[in-house]
Specification:
By secondary structure, the chain is an alpha/beta fold. The chain contains 17 helices and 16 strands.
Amino acid sequence: MAVLVYNHAAHDSRVLKTAVSLRAAGAQVSIFAVARSRAGYPPGPGVVGDGVPVRRAPEFELARSAPVLLRLARLVTGRRAQPELADAPSATPPAPWPVPSTGPSPGPPPAPGIVQDLWLRAYRTLSLALYWWHAFRSAASYRPHVVHACDGNTLAPAMALSAVTGAKVVYDSHELWLRRNVRPDRPVAPWVEAAIEWAGVRWADGVITVSPSIATWLRRRYRLPVEPALVRNAPLTAARVHRGGVEDEGEAEAPVSLRDRAGLGADAQVVAYAGRMTTARGLEETLAALALLPSRVHLVLLGYGEPDYLATLHAHAAELGLQRRIHVVAAVQPGDVPAVLSTADVSVVIVRPVCLSYRFSLPNKVFESIHAGVPVVAADLPDLASLVRRYGVGEVVDVSSPSRLAEVIAAVLERPEPYRRAAASASHEISWAGEARRLLGLYSRVLGP
């Protein structure tokens, strides 16, 4: 089985768990990803996760692919013409949260000029096309029986592989692809993406997605005879964690305390955020609420983020006088997140519904928080709110009101135990073991006897 994914695959927890589950069921699995040399993931063969083979396609580089165009691009743009493509986490972990200088706070970078903008669009298009070509060539020699296409940007090579090798196709929509959070000024790309997904869904022998609302949307849009299989990105059940350590299920080591990682004392109350630090993830709203909470309450950000966004967030924290109550700690491996989160007091799971994909999302961090046994304060989004209320693992709040968000966080900090007990119970029901059964059930239908 060939798993196609347009990232370096080393930290994509869903891809890794999918590959391991298929291998455990008796399949030979290989991942076809893309290199990110600057992040430490060069092109060529390698292994990821629990020894899963991966072959990374080379990145598009003008210096190698078209040196004449590189010289021309440098002349036209007046700058280095090899854009940095974000593919987190980076090889270098984020530095501790900086103390602002007395000078002006850093702000967002200036908007790119028209030429630079056109160049960046062209570069990203060429990068994706190069990945399609290399993924097709590599996977074709692998002769897979099934191609597992992760998101809409891998459907084109998946369909080509199916046409050449006769392989079946499983489409795994990690988000609502056509309604994801991308720049709105793309006159051509939405039409191309819609055509590819329309063809890919009809070509596919099975469709999988991550939340009930996305499954319903896909079924209605493409008039599917059955709803896509729901396979949520829940953590593995490797150990049951609780405040301060790991209970004795296996030989897991006690987690490194978030307080220790952030340099906080035992009297500090920790509100945790896990994952990518970027816009529309509720960080600005959380800062506004934090300013209304007692000084012993600190926000610890566990993950990674683009330097430009972190600089902007830091400036906002400085404006609110919160720079000493915000702490950035380096990302950990996906499987270690629940254990590290278990030492927090509250986990904020906030997504602003700036696009339909975000509105319908079930973020990884809600499942990681449940497995950590940490109370959740979540945004009032359909699938997210339904899960939090169903299992009683936290509170749902309208995050547009900083005072209301602060009130809810304070109430949960005051009385966390009911939520911790509910999370401990829910973690037995919500785990990758159950999601993998649905994954393998779909594969059984796709492959037949």
